[in-house]
Amino acid sequence: MLRKRFTIEGSGSYKRTSDSSSGFTPNWLNISFVVPMHLIGLLAWPTYLYLSHGDIRWPEIAAFVFMFILGSIGVDVGYHRAFTHRAFHMSPFMRLLGLFGAASVGEGSALTWCSDHRRHHRFQDTDQDPYNVRRGFWWAHMGWILGSPTSSDFTNCPDLLKDKLVINQHKYYPIWLVLSCFLLPLGIGFLLGRPLQVFLFAGFTRLFLINHFTYLINSYAHYFGRRPYSSGITARDSLVCAILAQGEGWHNYHHRFPYDYRNGHRFYHYDPTKWFIFVAQFLGLTSNLKRTPAHEIYRARIQTKRQWISAPKTPHFAKLEEALDVSLAQWQEWHNELARIRFQMGEKGSKRIQTLKANANRARHEFKILYAEWKQWLKGMAAPV
Fold this sequence. Notes:
This protein is mainly alpha-helical. The chain has two domains: 6-287, no CATH class; 294-378. The chain is built from 15 helices and four strands. The chain starts with 5 loop residues before the first strand and ends in a 7-residue tail after the last helix.
């Protein structure tokens, strides 16, 4: 028998939260949209080729790229890193763009999307996780969308409930969806003189692809990849998903440090979303970008690697580990003191700040030397993560 969780609000109405505790119970509203969207999305490409006689032209390609970027900005920049995790602040225009762009991918309003995703992080890999991967690949991929109730309990989103634009998008979501997902590509098609071709390719084919690229983060990125920052969770770093989902595939790092505006924290990690957010701050579109301190990232890697040590520790290795911990603590202490003084004084060029910065850099350099030596000793003692 179906078992659902309910939250009773003061009005006496029952509010549902999507979870993974029950069997598959059809969500007919979602099914009525997702199933036709998939059928049309699968048929759109061959239909487009038939109508074009195999003649693929630049207008529909340009429209496809534009609509794909718009949707990615909406979901990855807006829904995910800004609205859900509050990893940075958005300007009013950027908030509007994020909500409009996200509506173009048909994944629900900001309230439902962010509420589910916050629940996913808080209760990851449990029955309270809406797309709990331990229930199977297909369930995490899209089964939960079709077979569990749509969340209507937004008590975990008090900040979003105060946002008038977010509330407007939630209340009038069908209008936002039709305008951004269907009428926009159709209008672009008329402007380019290829209305049906653009509507099929930049509308339905694009919608089908971008949805599944998003779904892969909940499924594939919890099955395949590496876990360098936390081995106690299923989320994994996947270059494949990072390429398909605009940098969202560095999922083990993201679950370990969800409030970082970066998913790929290294400069060479493929993460167009982080690059967009970073550049947008110089245009006044984003601000207050949150970054995980480097010493915290190293601490997570060390903790994870230590869990895989299989051989007994030699006296030298034990001393090396002790020195490594002391060095990391010193680096963190200098870093925190520098951040505190900067916050209090706000004087970037003051002599005191320059001295603290030099001490922090020196501590970081000394730590990295010990860390490199520690990794060399570790090679024969640990299994790959």
